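Data card: per-record layout.
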Amino acid sequence: MKFIYNDGGRSNYFKGSANDCVVRAICNATGKDYKEVYDAINQLAKSERTGKRKRGVSSARNGVYKCTEKKYLESIGWVWHPTMKIGQGCTVHLAADELPTGTLIVQVSGHLTCVKDGVLYDSYDCTRGGNRCVYGYWTNAADEVKKQQRFKEIKTKILALRAEIKKLEKELEEVSA
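The structure for this 177-residue chain is written out next.
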């Protein structure tokens, strides 16, 4: 998989590195401003509950819990597509030929990244040579609707062409008889 370095716009606001993969992936996939997403994630984190397994709340800089990631992505119109079931094992890897085309926000172990048409956009190459397991990915619901509409258009054209071919075959039979 081709890799293109992209910090999602972090360097426009902050220096150094951070565990901000959720913000980076969302910015790389949506084109949204880094600070806008950063602030929105931190705002959502304020409403999180803590517990025995969840000691603190999400932080756009230091890590985001999946529930907050999910709330944010669903609020901006993205849809989750799981690629694994519990106990199933890995079926999809972070490799261009194993993921669908389009813009994806991909969940791998302990990391979220962006893949656009088979190209990885992140601050480092997290593919592990194409062996890293994909737990699932997010797609933009509006893109899904566009794909479905385009599919219907193409299918209609194919049906019309088949009808035209049958008509021409019949004509050909009449002419050659």
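Known properties of this structure: The mean pLDDT is 91. Residues 102 and 143 are 8 Å apart (CA to CA).

See the next section for split statistics.
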